[in-house]
Amino acid sequence: MTIYLDVVLIENLCMNYIILFATGYILKLKISHIKVVISSLIGSVYAIVCYMEILEIYSNIITKIVLSIVMVYVAFRPRNVKMCIKQVLMFYLISFIFGGCAFALLYIVKPQDIITRNGVFVGTYPIKIAVLGALVGFIITYLVFKLIKNRFSNKNVFCDIYVKFKEREILVKGMLDTGNLLKDPITQMPVILIEKDKLYDILPKSILDNIEKIIGGDKLENISEQEKNEYLSKFKIIPFNSVGKQNGILIGFKVDRINIIENDEEKESTDIIVGIFNGKFDKHDRYSALFGLEALERREKNEYITNIKI
Prior knowledge:
Elements: H1 5-26, H2 33-52, H3 61-76, H4 81-109, E1 114-117, E2 120-123, H5 127-156, E3 158-165, E4 168-176, E5 191-195, H6 205-208, H7 211-216, H8 225-231, E6 235-242, E7 245-254, E8 257-262, E9 265-269, E10 273-277, E11 289-291
Parallel strand pairs: 4-11, 5-10
Antiparallel strand pairs: 1-2, 3-4, 3-8, 5-11, 6-7, 7-10, 8-9
Helix pairs in contact: 1-2, 1-4, 1-5, 2-3, 3-4, 4-5
């Protein structure tokens, strides 16, 4: 049986390109088609080297791992080792899925003239089978990851939040808002927004009903001196910008502790500001608080970080 190296090159080039493209697409990476083609070409040349037994180390597993790292690096230029490992693992996962789809199509078509040599499958089967297998694999991978992402997003988006302040505690339903980057400008503590109506159990009604006057600096006749001394010292002015409103301000106060229940795990923090929101977040009352990622994770010495887990 006559094997044409240009056919082997083109087949592997197409397969490598689709796998790399799928890797970048699923991980939401910036894709340069030229870099992906160059990376695919490197993998294709390696396939020819394997088939022709040009190098003795072609079958070494370390060589194959190094090749994968090189292909990923050429295609996406990961910024650090962690990103590189993540992209390489995704590259392998998608390769296994695509390979399974290609084998399934080969089993259905049952080509007569097909051989394997040093891990490279060659034969007279049409190139469209390899490309079709890659496309089917891409669709399956995309749908599976989209389903998993939606399930995890729906599961993790709502959390129970316990807020403790001056020996009083309330429970509110919070929603994770990745766009909530509010911080106290002085202490750099993250801010959790909670509807005003939910705070009557931990703050005096006289203070909550006069939030606008507190912000405006008006005279507070309805608040006793004891309440002023006990509570107003805890209050902070939080500047913010949002869609439709620039240079806004809201009142926040330092709580004693919050506990966020996420995925049956409890995360506690004593360095949180609660911002008082004078309105409703959701007309169906599914949640009454908004918190950002920085409310979930922190380093020692009260240094807050944004930590997105994959």
